[in-house]
């Protein structure tokens, strides 16, 4: 019997009563990963089936939170004494479990229970409507059970769809945020590329200007070298001309000095003696020889 087996799982001290502390301790034992919620997988590993799991009211069909678990205990504690007896458990356990685990006498709801509002949403869905007689109620129990299971499946499917929609919205928002971040990063990269191109163009323009200046300076240096070379050629030619003029002036001065001396020496017969002395004066030697040739 699934209902009693789960009751015994919760009733740690085996006194046929479940306290609120034992109820919460059972939650912690089922919540193996300790994340504060019992997943369908964790429940199945502990209990084998999910009938009771599906009967507990929860926002998401795939997990039960600790608060939802606590609210389930309050809904089952009909006398509000903070404890669940076996009779309370069997009377208020989900209809799906009752039909498979509770004796026939325990299935018949009392008038007080029929007037009591359901503790959970699934109990409201699964509670069969009371007819005027117990016989009519029993005749409708089979169809009511089938309808209950169908409605539970529909609710579970709706919860799954709601959870999927929420996850899709979250994923869409994350994708939009990632896209916005990527666009911002792309704009930053484009700006950096534009700035780098502008800096490169500026450097290129500066390099070209420096190259033009260097070329102009080189051209000016070449022109100056050419001018210096021309000035050197002119200076050399002028030096040679000055040298020739100096030689002519020296020769003319020497001839003017020697002419009367040579004339007298020729007349006196002492020309040979003067020629030997003229060899010692190189500046006047040529002039003396020319005058001697003309005189002879």
Q: Describe it for me?
A:
With 296 residues, this protein is mainly alpha-helical. It has a domain at 2-139. It is 77% helix and 4% strand. It has 14 helices and four strands. It has helices at 2-10, 20-30, 40-47, 51-55, 66-76, 86-92, 95-101, 104-107, 111-115, 121-126, 134-139, 141-268, 271-278, 282-295, and strands spanning 17-19, 37-39, 63-65, 83-85. The strands form two sheets. It has a two-stranded antiparallel sheet. α2 runs antiparallel to α5 and α12 (141-268) packs across α14. It is rod-shaped. The chain starts with a helix and ends with a helix. The model is unreliable at 95-144 (pLDDT under 50).
Give me the count of strands: 4
Give the percentage of residues in beta strands: under 5%
The span between the termini is: 173 Å
Radius of gyration: 65 Å
Q: Figure out the total of helices.
A: 14
Helix and strand content put the structural class at mainly alpha
Summarize the helix and strand pattern as letters. HEHEHHEHEHHHHHHHHH
Short précis:
By secondary structure, this protein is mainly α.
Provide tags for this entry.
mainly alpha; two-stranded antiparallel ribbon; two-stranded antiparallel sheet
Topology overview:
Layout: H1 2-10, E1 17-19, H2 20-30, E2 37-39, H3 40-47, H4 51-55, E3 63-65, H5 66-76, E4 83-85, H6 86-92, H7 95-101, H8 104-107, H9 111-115, H10 121-126, H11 134-139, H12 141-268, H13 271-278, H14 282-295
Antiparallel strand pairs: 1-4, 2-3
Helix pairs in contact: 2-5, 12-14
């Amino acid at each position: 019997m699934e209902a009693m087996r789960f009751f015994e799982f919760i009733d740690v001290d085996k006194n046929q009563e479940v306290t609120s502390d034992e109820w919460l301790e059972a939650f912690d034992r089922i919540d193996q990963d300790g994340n504060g919620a019992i997943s369908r997988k964790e429940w199945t590993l502990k209990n084998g089936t999910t009938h009771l799991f599906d009967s507990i009211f929860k926002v998401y069909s795939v997990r039960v939170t600790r608060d939802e678990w606590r609210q389930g205990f309050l809904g089952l504690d009909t006398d509000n004494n903070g404890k669940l007896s076996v009779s309370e458990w069997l009377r208020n356990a989900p209809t799906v479990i009752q039909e498979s685990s509770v004796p026939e006498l325990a299935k018949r709801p009392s008038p007080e229970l029929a007037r009591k509002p359901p503790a959970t949403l699934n109990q409201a869905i699964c509670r069969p409507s009371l007819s005027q007689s117990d016989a009519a109620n029993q005749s409708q129990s089979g169809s009511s059970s089938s309808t209950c299971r169908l409605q539970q499946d529909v609710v579970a499917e709706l919860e799954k769809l709601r959870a999927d929609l929420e996850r899709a919205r979250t994923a869409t928002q994350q994708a939009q945020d990632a896209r916005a971040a990527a666009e911002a990063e792309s704009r930053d990269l484009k700006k950096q590329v534009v700035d780098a191109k502008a800096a490169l163009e500026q450097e290129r323009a500066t390099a070209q200007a420096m190259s033009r200046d260097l070329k102009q300076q080189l051209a000016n240096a070449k022109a100056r070298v050419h001018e210096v070379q021309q000035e050197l050629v002119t200076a050399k030619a002028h030096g040679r001309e000055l040298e020739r003029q100096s030689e002519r002036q020296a020769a003319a001065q020497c001839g003017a000095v020697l002419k009367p001396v040579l004339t007298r020496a020729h007349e006196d017969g002492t020309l040979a003696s003067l020629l030997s002395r003229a060899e010692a004066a190189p500046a006047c030697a040529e002039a003396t020889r020319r005058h001697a040739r003309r005189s002879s």
